[in-house]
Predict the structure of Cytochrome C.
Amino acid sequence: MPRTYSGEEEIVMKPVMSRLMKLALGAISVAALGTIALPPAHAAGVPPAHSLAQAALQGQHIFNHDKFGGVRTCSACHVNGGTTIGHLPNGTKIPSLMGVAAEFPRYNPAAHRVVTLGQQLDHCITGGLQGKPPAANSAQMTDLVTYLTKLSKGSIMGKQFK
């Protein structure tokens, strides 16, 4: 069974290393250690994932470890990777994120507009984490959305449309 990234195995790469060399080191790490060595989520030049599974794994890593320059991670409130009921810093319970991607887009009555999953992530990162969200078209945002979509596997899409 392949090991998952635990945060203990981290490859420190020199900025002058070519992208090809980074990919080669990642492949060696996967083959030798049975894991994917992930650079920090906001590292400049992080290449996009090469598979859906890799994007979901990277998104899970970002979810659990990246503070986006703020004060907490997504998993500080959405415990167990978002797979169980979570809680806000004030103790208020929040629902699991299982199936969350199937709920978007949805109308937000407080904002008086329709919001996408990416826009909701922006709101959570800016407000809850007090950080700076990744750009909408960045590898980091794609990986986060991919991870949350993986948590929605088997969910019925479009239930918000009556």
Summary: Residues 1-37 form one domain. The first strand starts at residue 86 and ends at 87.
